[in-house]
């Protein structure tokens, strides 16, 4: 209740400031022209990424100008401590991170996913813990906050039985990171709100 009151007060304050503005001139609208990621950028990353995940349980696919590495939770995380990575997947994650670290035009979004078993809150927490575990490997490899983000998505992106428990490492051109966050962050925020 207190939070809603604070939000309402903030909205009213912002509205009052905007209404009392002395400027009568129309403010220009700035449109950012989105340049498509070149097919060459996508093609250049394939060989390095395939080599990085070779021999691991990870899969790689290309989708709309970005690469997605999928790590199935059943083979990547400790069954007794589901937010802890198994030792055999540290090498491929580290290899991906080191490969991309040397390419400053690359950015990474790590998404944790869970299934429908249990309650929504625990599923969201589990997916966030898994995303954070993978993201920590990227951070240890030198990735900074602006080039790498992580989100727990809970069970909001269902693939079907047995495929929901996973972590996706989305690799995109750095100019596309803002658009990627605009796509996934609202879903993440709805998951958080539904858990309260």
TrEMBL record:
Note one Pfam family from the annotation.
OmpA
| Domain of life from the UniProt record | Bacteria
From which residue to which does the signal peptide run? 1-26
Query: What keywords appear on the UniProt entry?
Result: Membrane, Signal
InterPro entries referenced in this protein's UniProt entry, alphabetically: Bact_OuterMem_StrucFunc, OmpA-like, OmpA-like_sf
Q: Which GO terms describe its cellular component?
A: membrane
Under PANTHER family, the record lists: EXPORTED PROTEIN, STATOR ELEMENT OF FLAGELLAR MOTOR COMPLEX
Name listed for the protein in its UniProt record:
OmpA family protein
Species for this entry: Denitrificimonas caeni
């Amino acid at each position: 209740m207190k939070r809603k009151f604070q939000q309402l007060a903030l909205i009213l304050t912002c509205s009052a400031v905007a209404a009392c503005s002395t400027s009568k001139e129309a403010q220009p609208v700035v449109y950012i022209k989105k340049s498509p990621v070149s097919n060459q950028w996508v093609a250049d990353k394939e060989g390095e990424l395939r080599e990085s995940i070779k021999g691991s349980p990870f899969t790689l696919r290309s989708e709309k100008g970005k690469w997605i590495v999928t790590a199935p939770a059943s083979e990547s995380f400790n069954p007794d401590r589901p937010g802890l990575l198994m030792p055999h997947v540290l090498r491929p994650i580290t290899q991906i991170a080191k490969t991309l670290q040397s390419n400053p035009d690359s950015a990474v979004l790590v998404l944790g996913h869970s299934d429908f078993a249990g309650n929504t809150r625990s599923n969201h927490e589990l997916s966030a813990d898994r995303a954070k575990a993978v993201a920590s490997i990227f951070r240890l490899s030198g990735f900074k906050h602006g080039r790498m983000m992580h989100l727990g998505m809970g069970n909001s992106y269902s693939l079907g039985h047995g495929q929901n428990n996973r972590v996706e490492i989305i690799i995109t051109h750095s100019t596309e990171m803002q658009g990627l966050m605009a796509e996934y962050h609202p879903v993440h925020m709805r998951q958080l709100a539904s858990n309260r």
